[in-house]
Design brief:
Blueprint: H1 15-37, E1 41-43, H2 48-77, H3 81-96, E2 101-103, H4 106-126, H5 133-146, E3 157-163, H6 168-177, H7 181-189, E4 192-198, H8 205-214, E5 224-227, E6 232-235, H9 239-249, E7 261-263, E8 273-275, H10 300-304, H11 307-334, H12 346-349, H13 351-370, E9 375-380, H14 382-390, H15 395-414, E10 422-427, E11 433-434, H16 438-442, H17 446-453, H18 475-480, H19 484-496, H20 502-514, E12 538-543, E13 546-551, H21 560-566, H22 570-576, E14 580-587, E15 591-596, E16 599-602, E17 607-610, H23 621-629, E18 637-641, E19 643-644, E20 649-650, E21 658-659, E22 669-675, E23 683-685, H24 687-700, E24 724-726
Parallel strand pairs: 3-9, 3-10, 4-23, 7-8, 7-9
Antiparallel strand pairs: 1-2, 4-22, 5-6, 10-22, 11-21, 12-13, 13-18, 14-15, 14-18, 15-16, 16-17, 19-20, 23-24
Helix pairs in contact: 1-2, 1-4, 2-3, 3-4, 3-11, 4-11, 8-24, 11-13, 13-14, 13-15, 14-15, 20-22
């Protein structure tokens, strides 16, 4: 598919002239209205609005882009607010030099800027014109003067657009129901195919993106995990940890190593051009890369060079915050279940991913296409963020998905200006499974549960900050106040857990046969741990639908027999808990063993006793769990939440409605939408296998592969163990 063949309205003759004239006329009228309606703003003569409108046009079109070359950090780090204030200062200065124009102060100038932005938006709507039109035209003229810059126009480039967290089934329904009309049109026209791919056990962005971009996600256990040798919790969203993860997995030959670009990702894929990438945020502790960032802020300047973009983004963020407040109130009023707390600062933090980062990433992608980058990978986070709090297919999250689809259409429309044709591949890093949070359903967090079973002291409820002396209600107390459906579900779960399961009985019998008496729970030795212990010597790290338990006073992996001896009630109680689906432990006698309520699975031999605890978790569950058991930092106990296939429901160990991170349901199935001119990918299992598919597509198109030797300064070769493609 050569998107340059579909030119659309972008370059129709006369539109630029019509826009300039219409904006000028409407600005004059708006200034006259402001003269009458706005206190502190006055014009003495008839000619002044006309001159002011002309000078405002010159300010925004000529002076502002030059000023922003110096003031870009202010615009960037204030997410556009600083640029609005700078533009208001410019308006104040311009009006000050025109005789007879009276502007009351800076606040009045801000109002004038806001009104002018509305005028620009109205004109764009009337002409069906995007505000980036002027930038596109300037870029086209620049490219015409500069030539193709050495770009091989016969070799297509590829945009890899990741819609974070969008599962395959949700994507299919969104295409079918018209939520994503751009993708639906491509499928209807036959230019693209839609398929799925199966994630690793760790169905979350850290493991998936490392595997997709770098070809390895070895030893990545979750979005967060505990490393016993360093007494440190690794977190993919922390810049220093993201940099360390990339250092461990990069060999200099990532997916984007050949003049590619990474936009808004956790990792760079060895791209020489990157922005909004967590592993490169040096001022927050990330590594300093010898590779170059993009000039003028990796696409930021191209976006903020049009002052109306900043105003539009700010306005869009405020609208999105209002939408979040409204939808949260509607869920609460209608008693929608499951739901989670959506108050506090979240309504104002949400637009950071749904609007601000999205707009900046799109602008950077346009710049990449104009520069002819051979491969670009970008992550749109908005759907994943809202689905965590709202649910995977509810009204407000589908509106976010629709806006992402609109941006994909915008990129498709802009691609025809590029010096080479571009193919667009849309994909996700994982899906999401919906369900009531573990702490809400069972009255305590997984950390509290494990700590209690290991002899820890339950945390004291915090008291209210306003000093009334009453403790905050616990999750169990909040659950008791809910309507009938809430306590009925709790009662049903309590009845289900009243009798011990066969595996719990077997575990207790093993302890009795061994004649082991419960040991006194140990106190921590040596220096205090850097990571909070839920009980002496016990660390629990939840990561979506997975929770990891480590016993810090033992070096290396602690085996099943030691856990039984030191904490005889821990494994039986966990395996019988209605929120636990299965657990991975390592036996010194049998090797890796998966325990479930009604059966166990010895992964070394494939022997299943009772019911297979992995039966409801997909055909690749045993292979994926067996692989994690080989990881050097595999925790002592790895817990996966219980998935109910009848309800398509699971309870995450974090307070989310839509969640992921483990096995069970839609979270394990990402989507892949690809141009049909590329080879069909087959059944893909694991992010490393998906990397090989994407790398193969680039090679198929004629793009050069990264050099066989690691780049200077790159770490040693990554482990040879890889994912696989089935079928």
């Amino acid at each position: 598919m050569d998107v340059r063949e579909q030119r659309g309205p972008l370059l129709r003759r006369g539109r630029l002239v019509a826009r300039v004239v219409l904006v000028w006329v409407l600005t004059v009228l708006a200034l006259r209205l402001l003269d009458d309606a706005l206190a502190g703003f006055a014009m003495d003569s008839w000619w002044q609005p006309t001159v002011c409108a002309l000078l405002l046009g010159l300010l925004t079109a000529v002076v502002w882009p030059l000023v922003l070359r110096v003031a870009l950090p202010l615009a960037l780090f204030t997410l556009g607010i600083g640029s609005v204030l700078l533009l208001a200062a410019g308006v104040l200065a311009v009006f000050a030099v025109i005789p007879g124009v009276h502007l009351g102060g800076f606040s009045t100038a801000v109002i004038v800027v806001a009104v002018m932005s509305v005028v620009g938006a109205v004109v764009s709507s009337l002409l069906s014109l995007d505000e980036d039109e002027i930038f596109y035209r300037r870029a086209a003229r620049r490219l015409k003067k500069a030539g193709d810059g050495g770009v091989d126009s016969a070799v297509p480039g590829v945009l890899f657009l990741q819609i974070d967290g969008l599962g395959h089934e949700t994507a299919r329904r969104a295409v079918r129901d018209g939520t994503m009309p751009t993708l639906a049109r491509w499928i209807a026209e036959g230019s693209h195919g839609l398929t799925s791919w199966h994630t690793d056990w760790s169905s979350q962005t850290g493991a998936s993106v490392a595997g997709i971009l770098h070809g390895s996600n070895h030893d990545i256990l979750g979005f967060r995990w505990y490393e016993k040798d360093r007494d440190h919790v690794m977190a993919c969203a922390h810049s220093a940890d993201a940099a360390e993860i990339e250092r461990r997995h990069s060999n200099g030959r990532g997916l984007l190593a050949v003049d590619g670009a990474a936009r808004g990702n956790l990792f760079t894929g060895d791209a020489p051009h990157y922005s909004l990438t967590m592993s490169t945020v040096t001022f927050l502790g990330g590594h300093h890369s010898a590779r170059r960032k993009d000039r003028l802020g990796g696409g930021y300047w191209a976006y903020f060079a049009n002052p109306f973009n900043a105003v539009r983004t700010l306005w869009g963020a405020l609208v999105d915050a209002g939408r979040e407040i409204f939808e949260a109130a509607r869920q609460k009023r209608s008693d929608v279940r499951p739901r989670t707390n959506r108050g506090g600062l979240y309504p104002f933090a949400r637009p950071g991913t749904t609007v601000i980062a999205r707009d900046i990433v799109v602008s950077a992608l346009i710049e990449d296409m104009l520069d002819g980058r051979p491969a670009v990978y970008a992550d749109f986070l908005g759907y994943d963020e809202v689905a965590h709090h709202s649910g995977i297919e509810r009204v407000d999250v589908l509106s976010v998905l629709r806006s992402i689809d609109q941006q994909i259409g915008r990129l498709h429309r802009a691609a025809h200006l590029a010096p080479r044709p571009y193919l667009i591949v849309a994909l996700s890093d994982h899906g999401q499974t919906q369900g009531q949070a573990f702490s809400d359903r069972f009255g305590e967090t997984i950390e509290t549960l494990v700590g209690r079973l290991c002899g820890g002291t339950p945390p004291v409820p915090k008291r209210r900050w306003f000093g009334l002396g009453r403790p905050r209600p616990t999750p169990a107390q909040r659950s008791a106040r809910r309507t009938a459906e809430g306590w009925q579900v709790g009662a049903a779960l309590a009845e289900a857990s009243s009798g011990a399961g066969v595996i719990a009985r077997r575990l207790r019998a093993r302890v009795e046969r061994a004649g082991a008496a419960p040991e006194k729970h140990r106190t921590e030795s040596g220096r205090p741990g850097l990571v909070t212990r839920v009980a002496p010597g016990v660390v629990v790290v939840p990561s979506g639908h997975v929770a990891m338990v480590s016993f810090t006073e033992h070096e290396g992996r602690v085996d099943l027999e030691t856990i039984e001896r030191e904490f005889p009630e821990l494994l039986p109680s966990l395996v019988d808990h209605p929120g636990v689906g299965f657990m991975l432990v390592h036996s010194s006698e049998f090797g890796p063993v998966v325990l479930g309520r009604d059966g166990l699975h010895r992964l070394r031999t494939g022997l299943v006793i009772g019911e297979d605890p992995l039966a409801d978790y997909g055909p690749y569950a045993a292979d994926l769990v067996r692989r994690v058991d080989t990881f050097p930092r595999c925790p002592d106990i790895m817990i996966n939440s219980r998935y109910d296939p009848a309800r398509d429901d699971a309870s995450p160990f974090e307070p989310h409605v839509g969640s992921h991170g483990g096995l069970g349901g839609p979270q394990s199935r990402g989507f892949l939408m690809y141009p049909r001119e590329l080879p069909a990918p087959g059944e893909i299992v694991g992010a490393e296998a998906l990397h090989r598919v994407l790398r193969g597509w680039l090679t198929h198109l004629g793009q050069p592969a990264p050099g066989e030797e690691p780049l200077a300064g790159a770490p040693d070769e990554i482990p040879a163990e890889r994912g696989f493609v089935a079928g």
